[in-house]
Amino acid sequence: MSTLATDVAIIGGGLVGTSAALALRRSGLSVVVLDKGYCGAQASGVNYGGVRRQGRPLAQIPLSQRAHAIWPRLKELIGIDGEFLRSGHLKLARTEAEMAALETYAARVADLGLDLELMGHNGLRERYPWIAGHVAGASLCPGDGHANPRLVSAAFARAAERAGAHVMEHTPVHHVERMPDGFHLSTGAGIDIKARHVVNSAGAWAAPFAAAFGEPVPLGRIYPCLIVTEPVAPAMTVNIGAEGGGIYARQVERGNCIVGGVRGAPLPDADFSRPVGAPAISVMNRAAKLFPALRHAHAIRFWTGTEGDMPDRNPVIGFSATTPGLIHAFGFSGAGFQIAPGVGEVVADLIRDGRSTTPIDAFAIDRFVRTNEGSGADLMTEPQQRETSQ
Amino acid sequence: MALLKRLARRDLAIIPFTLDGVPREGRAGDTILTAALTLTEQLRHSEFSGGPRAGFCQMGACQDCWVVTADGRRLRACTTLLVPGMDLRTRPEGQS
Amino acid sequence: MSKKLRPLIVGAGPAGIRAAEVLANAGIRPLVVDEAPLGGGQIYRQRFVPDERTPRDLYGSEASKATALHQTFAALADCIDYRPQALVWNIGPTVADIAVDGRSRRADFTHLVLATGATDRVLPFDGWTIPGVFTLGGAQVALKSQGCAIGDSVVFMGTGPLLYLVAWQYLKAGAQVAAVLDTAPFAAKLNLLLGLPSQPGVVLRGIRYAAELVARGIPVHYGVAPIRVEGGARVTGIAWREAGKESRLACDAVGFGLGLRSETQLADLAGCHFIFDERDRAWRPERDAAGRTSVPGVYAAGDGAGVAGADAAELAGERTGWAILQDANLPVDTMRIRLLEKKLGAIDRFRSILERAFPFPTAWAAGLPDDVVLCRCEEIAVADARLAARQQSVVEINRLKALTRIGMGRCQGRMCGTAAAEVLASSCGRSLEAVGRLRSQAPIKPLPLDLTGEEDAA
Asked: What is the pTM of this model?
């Protein structure tokens, strides 16, 4: 049994963990990233691929803005652009009530730099004639877009590795505890890690690591189901979402459209999930109705993935309330892709400076201790009412 | 020029159809693939290179013989029977 | 008891039909779902419309087997629920999603027989997407079902019994066979003699096909490695290497295949455990001698459960039918079951001999030029797979798919999966088994977005 000593041990090689590793390496700290499988193979790699600020809770906007500055720099940061397209994100309102909700949201974020543009039915028709059906209006966030999660998540891991991080894949952490001389992590790979700091960025698998330090969290799981069409002629010029959920869609440069809005079902081993026929068809039909160009297109592939989900839709980000040197960053509730690179920088700030200039108070882990009563009451939120990963 | 060569079934009933705007004739019992490739050389074009394709496996596995009807529906040529009056295209609208 | 059984049989080829027959004879009414308009499978595929040809013209030496199978299936019509032109596109626990005529329907089942068959196993070569290049199976379908040759001057290339059978069928039908290019050395064929005692009919028929081809002056080359198929809009010729020497031949079509590969997507979605079959160089659902997979109530028979040919498919299909009865504690014919297993064992032993006579070209993938298209659907080059292995340390096939799109297109890796695994294994220095198995995803074949769902079907 050998022991590896490091400044920071990161549990979970998703986008948050690997972008933190990259930022930490730039600050000169030594980093070990541990992943039970391949880095970025879970939520970071199998999400929808929306790079979206619009629609986020207000508390997330500063963090989201910090990430927003990172996305156009991917090439320089990780060596590829990750198929990032600043297409804009268009959120549709199907009813007047939904339109009112979009207007309210736009007013609340007016000073936060999202530059939202509201449009009514006619304006929408004029600008996006490829959208059909009953649409009352929409809100456009021109600076938002979409990217390819498979490529981005893998490239962050490789970039961290190139920057000197020790990336250990297929290395589950069996046990972690804090000793007087720092954290001790034992793995199944015959190697133990000794670290001054630990980052818990284990996504849907993060709760046991938090619980190990006396911080139980109501972390649930969701299983978004995505549908990919055959390549079709360019039609969808903007990343589409809908107020109230039920459908989201984008078209990649190769022509495939990716459509989501429903959930898959977990397998007996809840780490894995699979698409379910009827809901998948219903979202296919929704896409066919909303986008006439796709009416006859074929779905060629479905996929599902496992994402960590918090009852209040906000992630846990920040210092542990019980254990010095421990930092949590998980529970992105189906909306982690865009903000993850920003979270990585914030995690690095916390370790390097003991604080971050980006406000993250709303994401403290002890918010569930403080409001314990009924905190798990809405764990079973109606899946189709919520957007995922946009 | 045709890709496929008929060795039998030449005397079966004629099935009229349209291929890329041109009136054509197939035979009763033809698949779309047979009807088209006994008359022309390709069924579709790659979305990426634009290269011509004419099917490959002829048993519904390779998915390389999808043609488009005039109203935009996709038909897998090797597993779809030719029906009188079919209006088929080897390029979907928007593909150049 | 038997009234409560609702078996679903996927595939109406030799295996599916024989499984249905056993169940129907026991008073059980299976649902038989098949993609084709008519039963018989690929091997005993029926014409859509009768024509001037006799069963002998269509099926040659296997005409009596084909006719018997078709007659059996026709006689079952009142005892089974049969859904032709229907695609089982997803399998969940005890439920299947079936697309038929623009609608998707759910079918609950108590037992599932996967008789999903096989298609040609192929590896890429320069020019393999040019119109006029078809699989050997495709060339055979064109002839049997459609009465067409794939060209005026056809080269057949590859390995496996189908190579000589299809070439011979083309010859008999009056097509011009330009050459047979066997990727295996002639010496490999001597292994066939080992099969003479157990399967003399099969061996002698194979020898006869080759002998007749040679007698009719058709060049047969052994130890061939393709260099390229020439042409742009269509095939104009083929170039190959043989004993270090380059040759070329003008032709306008190429029929090509390297044996068969099982259609295992539904077994994967059903959750069956897979094992690596060294002989097939492929993963297949694990099954016992009766066809039981690792999932209770799910059975696999025929070439979809590991390639063994049409005779074995009939026997294995029948055996799964009996297995369902056994597992439901219904009476069975134990003598018959013993006989079936004995015959299947003999065929399995003969399969090993066939594999030595028609060996898979194991060095092909490593020797592929970088710019050859590996994935036909997404048009991803061999170089991209090698680059992923070299620069991104990819050692697993699903990771290769995630990073390169290989196998992500319409065919879901049916045409490129073998090549992807072979190229990856040779690039990263791991065994074929170690690079793993491409996971299947619903829908197993493309579905229109405007497919009508169950809730609208009422």
From this structure: 0.95
